[in-house]
Design brief:
- The protein is globular.
- It has helices spanning about 5-25, 30-60, 70-80, 105-115, 115-125, 135-145, 165-170, 175-195, 200-225, 230-240, 250-260, 305-325, and strands at about 160, 195, 295, 300-305.
- With about 325 residues, it is mainly α.
- A hairpin with a 4-residue loop joins strand 3 (about 295) and strand 4 (about 300-305).
- The protein has one domain (about 90-325).
- Strands 1-2 form a two-stranded parallel sheet.
- InterPro entries: DUF4735.
Length: about 325
């Protein structure tokens, strides 16, 4: 388990808790029972993960400057930001009107925006040249762990105390690829994890919607290219979906993610491996807990990153169905 999987579990827990709180009286009893069971299982996994993180924290020496901190230091801070689901603000209700504000582009128009596919693919693969880089993004998200938790939702949001460079990443970061989604991720964590605004509540909302519309255009390009970058494609659906952008949850797009699921439940980045069985290979897995940084687990037959993305995508779909039809 890693910070990505932990965050996906948190989104799942917050969403199911939100569903039960809002729809407990209207949902069929068998669904309520199932959601309750899901929450219990979530709590078991979450408590186990954070108990081990707490042990690691006791012996770990933290650097004073989070932007020069080790990967472990950043991951511990992010883990504590993603712990108590009861402190997170409920996610936005889905807005069906947003679809009317989107534009559907053809391939030529998208190539004019992003370049030929090979050029675009090489650009998004060069993550260290993007703004923010993965380490810069983790540092900014981890910095929020020091931010007080503002629990009231009845007043204007408090201002987040974040470094100037984190604000610059949001204002003038890369407009495509993983960096674009990392900009959205920082806004998600400040809004829901600490109930504070980077700029102001109105400005953050405007910027978040703007970035999600940019991600939607990019997803159109990926979809027209045989969904060639499934993790990036799924991240957009996951992040903007939990922000209430219902137009990301099309059957065609969601099914493209589900194609990566293995028979055992895990997801792989390569859809050709979705039928592989890890049951006979799992016996050699280490029993010792560790802060895993590898993308693969279960002897390489389960991709944590893709599985985390898919969990949030499916969670968004479940929340949309219960919001809309119950």
């Amino acid at each position: 388990m890693d910070v990505n999987m932990n965050w996906a579990h948190l989104v799942f827990g917050v969403s199911v808790h939100q569903i039960l709180k809002a729809k407990n009286e209207t949902l069929p009893s068998n669904l309520v029972d199932r959601f309750d069971k899901w929450l219990r299982n979530y709590k078991i996994a979450s408590d186990y993960f954070h108990a081990n993180v707490a042990k690691l924290k006791k012996t770990h020496k933290f650097e004073a400057n989070i932007f020069k901190a080790s990967e472990v230091s950043r991951e511990i801070r992010i883990s504590y930001l993603h712990y108590n689901m009861s402190l997170w603000v409920p996610f936005e209700k889905f807005n069906l009107e947003l679809l009317k504000r989107t534009t559907i582009y053809d391939r030529q128009q998208l190539e004019n925006m992003y370049g030929q596919w090979i050029t675009y693919a090489n650009s998004i693969a060069n993550v260290l040249m993007m703004v923010p880089s993965p380490d810069e993004s983790d540092s900014c998200v981890g910095h929020l762990e020091h931010q007080p938790i503002f629990q009231s939702t009845l007043t204007n949001q408090a201002k987040c105390n974040v470094p100037k460079n984190c604000k610059l990443y949001l204002e003038a970061g890369s407009g495509f690829g993983y960096a674009l989604l990392h900009r959205i991720l920082l806004l998600v964590n400040s809004r829901y994890g600490r109930n504070c605004a980077i700029f102001s509540e109105k400005e953050d909302k405007y910027l978040t919607d703007k970035l999600c519309f940019m991600a939607y255009n990019e997803n159109q390009y990926i979809a027209l290219s045989d969904f060639a970058v499934p993790d990036l494609f799924g991240e957009s659906i996951a992040l903007c979906g939990l922000l209430g952008h219902a137009h990301f949850l099309t059957n065609f797009w969601v099914k493209s993610i589900m194609m990566h699921q293995k028979v055992d439940g895990c997801f792989m980045g390569d859809v050709s491996k979705s039928n592989e069985d890890f049951n006979e290979k799992i016996e050699n897995e280490t029993k010792q807990w560790s802060f895993s940084r590898d993308s693969d687990m279960l002897n390489g037959l389960c991709n944590k990153h893709m599985t985390s993305i898919a969990l949030v995508v499916v969670t968004n779909v479940v929340r949309f169905i219960t919001e809309t039809y119950y």
